[in-house]
C-alpha cells in the first residue's frame, strides 16, 4: 500500500520526480540516490516510497519495508564493489540523532575505512 506523497517533504518530492536526483537504485519499495553532501566516496540515501517520518514513528506494519531498506543497502554495496571491504549503514532518528529530513532514510557509506565510535 503506497501512502500519499507529502507535498512538503523533500524526499517525497524526489521520489515523485519533482526534484532531480542522481538515482542509483529503484524498486517497488524504495529509491536510492547519491547524497548531495557526501561524507564518504560513496554516500547513498535509501528512501522508502511510503512516507514514514522517522524510525521513532515506524510501526510493526513497516517491518517489511525496514528490512527491505537494509537488503537494498547490501545490494547497492555489492554493486558498487565495496561490500567485501566493508561499509557503514546509518539511520539518524529525530533531532538529537542528527535527522534533518523527516522522511525515514538509510545512509549507505562506503569506499573508505570508518572508525568507531562515530561522532
**CATH homology superfamily name:** HIT-like
| Strand neighbour order, sheet with most strands | 1-2-3-5-4
Largest sheet: 5 strands, antiparallel
- Helix and strand content put the structural class at alpha+beta
- The number of strands is 5
Number of domains: 1
Q: Segments where pLDDT lies below 50 for 5+ residues?
A: none
Mean pLDDT: 94
Anisotropy-based shape: globular
- Architecture (CATH level 2) name: 2-Layer Sandwich
Examine the coordinates and then state which fold CATH places here, giving the name of the CATH topology. Answer: HIT family, subunit A
Order of helices and strands: HEEEHEE
- Radius of gyration, taken over Cα atoms and rounded to an integer in Å: 14 Å
How many H/I helical runs?
A: 2
Fraction of helical residues: 10-25%
Give the C-level CATH assignment.
Alpha Beta
Strand % is 15-25%
Q: Report, as a whole number of angstroms, the end-to-end distance.
A: 37 Å
Which terms summarize this structure?
2 helices, alpha+beta, HIT family, subunit A, five-stranded antiparallel β-sheet, single chain, 5 strands, 119 residues
What would you say this structure looks like, in words?
It is globular and about 35 Å long. The protein has one domain: HIT family, subunit A, CATH 3.30.428.10. With 119 residues, the chain is of the alpha+beta class. It has a 5-stranded antiparallel beta sheet with strand order 1-2-3-5-4, with helices on one face. A hairpin with a 3-residue loop joins strand 1 and strand 2. The protein is 21% helix and 21% strand.
Amino acid at each position: 500500500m503506497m501512502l500519499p506523497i507529502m507535498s512538503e517533504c523533500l524526499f517525497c518530492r524526489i521520489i515523485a520526480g519533482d526534484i532531480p536526483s542522481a538515482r542509483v537504485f529503484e524498486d517497488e519499495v524504495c529509491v536510492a540516490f547519491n547524497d548531495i553532501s557526501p561524507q564518504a566516496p560513496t554516500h547513498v540515501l535509501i528512501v522508502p516510497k511510503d512516507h514514514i517520518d522517522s524510525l521513532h514513528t515506524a510501526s510493526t506494519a513497516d517491518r517489511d519495508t525496514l528490512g527491505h531498506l537494509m537488503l537494498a543497502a547490501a545490494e547497492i554495496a555489492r554493486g558498487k564493489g565495496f561490500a567485501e571491504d566493508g561499509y557503514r549503514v546509518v539511520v539518524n532518528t529525530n533531532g538529537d540523532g542528527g535527522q534533518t529530513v523527516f522522511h525515514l532514510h538509510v545512509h549507505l557509506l562506503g569506499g573508505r575505512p570508518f572508525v568507531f565510535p562515530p561522532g
